Recover the amino acids of this structure.
């Protein structure tokens, strides 16, 4: 059974930090790019960050560059998202998803989320940044 399980969300104050984890199972982790997406209430889902299967290529949305860092531990089939200097506008449900390696290029080209070739999605973890 394919599973992507997010953890690490919670309530944090402005300027604080959180580390999200995405634990994958049931598929060949090394064959997929793993992305983090978020959806705030009343807003469309947006791509936050993505990492290639080798870990050698990454993508960050402009809104999180310099504050968020994505990393992967292929031995543990886990991808992390370190989020620093959090802002109220970072409040959202954060999802991880596994997809084609071309996802990184498509995110850079600003292809809409529904059109991305993502094969598997997690159920999400809530991040709330309070002011």
């Amino acid at each position: 059974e394919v599973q992507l399980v997010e953890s690490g969300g919670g309530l944090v104050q402005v300027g604080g930090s959180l580390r999200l984890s995405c634990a994958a199972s049931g598929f060949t982790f090394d064959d997929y790019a793993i992305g983090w997406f978020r959806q705030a209430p009343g807003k469309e889902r947006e791509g936050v960050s993505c990492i290639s299967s080798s870990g050698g290529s990454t993508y960050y949305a402009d809104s999180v560059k310099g504050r968020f860092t994505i990393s992967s531990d292929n031995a543990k089939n886990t991808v992390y998202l370190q989020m620093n200097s959090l802002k109220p506008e970072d409040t959202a449900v954060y999802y991880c998803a596994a997809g084609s390696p071309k996802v990184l290029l498509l995110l850079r080209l600003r292809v809409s989320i529904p059109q991305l070739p993502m094969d598997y999605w997690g159920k999400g973890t809530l991040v709330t940044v309070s002011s």
